[in-house]
Amino acid sequence: MRARVALAAGAALLVAAVAVLVRGPVGYPELGLADPGVVVRVLVPVLRTVIDLAGAATVGGLLVALVVATPAPGTTAFTPSGERALRVARRAAWTGAGAAALSVPASLADSLGGRVPLGPDLVTTMLARGEPVGWLLAAVLGAVTAVAAGEVRRWSGGAGVLALAVATVLVPVATGHAADGVGRDLALSGTAFHVVAAAVWVGTLGVLAVVGGDHREWWRAARIGTAAGVVTVAAGALAAAVALSGPGGPGAGVDWTVLVLLSAALTVVAGGALWRRRTGRVAWRVELAVLAAVVGLSAVATRAVPPVQAPGATSTPTALLGYGLAAPPTPAVLASSWRPELVTLALAVVLAVLYAAGLRRLAREGARWPVGRSVAWFAGCALLVVATSSGLGRYGPAVLSVHIAGHMLVATAVPLLWALGAPVVLARRTLPEGAREGPADWLEHVLAAPTLRWASHPAVALVLVVGSPALLYLTPVFALTQPLGWLQPLMTLWFLLVGVLFLGPLVAGPPDGPGLPPIARLTFLLASMPVHALVGLALLAADHPVSRTPVLPADGGSGQIWVDDFFVRLRLPWAPDLLADQHLAGVLAWLLGDLPLLAAVLAVLAAWSHHARGEDADRRADLLVGLTSR
């Protein structure tokens, strides 16, 4: 099996090299670049193919160890095949890190006509281009993943390494085609889902073929591959549709379109092979060979120019945000200007579906579940969608007050509603248990993870809740990160995670016991409330917009640092007064940050009162029993 997997990997490299030679120096004139020569033109996509294959093997190896080759509950952390999969993941991570390091000078040569600057100019040239910096970061993350994969001994530790591996796979997306042009917000999210799902599909199949497995493990891998294949095709189609909708003229991006259509056709063939493999009518070798060709062609497509990057007339907001903003953000416009934010939308839908599945299982068993908890959970999911995909999400990158409103809802209101929904209690009552580890055991592994237990401690979570908005809005961090569109979903997820870590144990209690007494919970909640007031007052008192960005002179000289405001660069025809809008943002930070926390305080007081009445009733019942027994 290993020989056939190695042969498929070699075929992917060959496909990439041949495709480059057939294309020739296409695309460089459109970007205003000189031809770097055939060696560099072949080397860059070949290294990208190695990186993609290594990333898939890393992700797949960890998934095989964690999900596919699961041991019986209560036994050792990993099965023998799981241990072998971890070794494959570690070696693949080292391979990917090495290829990413080599891609730093290769990508520089690709953009500089075949030459690589030496000495002090190397750092300056790297920082002026996003791609080499991205490869350097991917190399560092890959090395960290490799070291961590060699040290992991427990399921929860493996899950953490898997998160690192996924982050490594996603780094090139932030500096690729999807990061520029019209619709880049949708293209970035769609490409991210496409890349991760493809890595899962290719990686689980290839790693399981290397380490071997029984019929049950192959069946699990096929189910994972099927789900990943569906996401790969759907997300890839979305990203391609956005790229094809660019303003380029006739004939723009023809070679990119041909490569993408050919890759899409082969992906569909691989999906058909996967489906037939599940029925035992096609061997896995056919599927892996086709997927290897897709990986090679996709690597070459990253060097082509999609229509969305072809020269064309676009407005300044469209060029910087990926979409236009024609009207000022009035309440009516915010309510009607929907634009999906795919990451949080997918998260909300998945969580709502899982909760509904739990409720359905309880109903089949005849068990009851409080209606208020269900309403709170689904309301939290809906509010997350509203805060990120309605006009709040669309105008947030361009208007500070709208940005603050959306972030405060995500950071406090959504976590509060989710805490009231008691999802952990529902999951423990409904997740099935079997002879081999399954979702119920994985949930317990995650809840018992030392990192999660440490981060969810009220004292630590309080520091995160207090420090996150202060660091973002009261320092240059906001101004420096605002132009980076790919960071916006990550910041949203960070605020959401911090809110869940803080409010979950305080409102719903920790998953493994009663937790802190009510008076201590109230103390932590009240201690967190002043931070939003301080942030709001700081925004009200500031005499300059926080969106100002310190930058070096454009000529790279030794002149003074000057200020470039991202909101000013948008050149919105209805642009608000930045200081007035910042003052409104300060008020919203105070109100929308503290009102949900006040509701959390009331919820804890109500639970405390209910518990106290229950204890009084128990004492009266005990006294009555004692009197009647005399």
UniProtKB/TrEMBL annotation:
Compartments, as annotated in UniProt: Cell membrane
Membrane-topology annotation of the record: Multi-pass membrane protein
Keywords: Cell membrane, Membrane, Transmembrane, Transmembrane helix
InterPro entries in alphabetical order: Caa3_assmbl_CtaG-rel
A Pfam family the protein falls into: Caa3_CtaG
Residue intervals passing through the bilayer: 50-72, 92-113, 133-152, 159-179, 191-212, 224-244, 256-275, 282-301, 342-363, 375-392, 404-426, 459-480, 486-507, 519-542, 587-608
Domain of life: Bacteria
Keyword Transmembrane helix: yes
Protein name, as recorded: Cytochrome c oxidase assembly protein
Source organism: Actinomycetospora rhizophila
